[in-house]
Amino acid sequence: MLKTYQKYHTKGFDIIGISLDGDREALTGFIKRYNVTWPQFFDGKAWENKLSTKYGVRSIPATYLLDSEGKIIGKNLRGEALESAVAKALAKS
Q: Is the pLDDT of residue 58 over 90?
């Protein structure tokens, strides 16, 4: 995900992380350890997080690729599959 973000962020690809941590310190440690630069949604509710329940997240990591209108166009993409889907989506915009 980080590689795809670095490659396509300037072309319009963005990431919003949804933290399922129960305490902010765990999230802060993760952000520092993996050099995460995109925003993180954190409400401290762990698995009861309003966004994770809205999208039916039952395991992590979970990924959703949304188009510019907010429509889900890919789920649980990683590595080359994520990069390919992002490139295709950006080519359409």
A: no
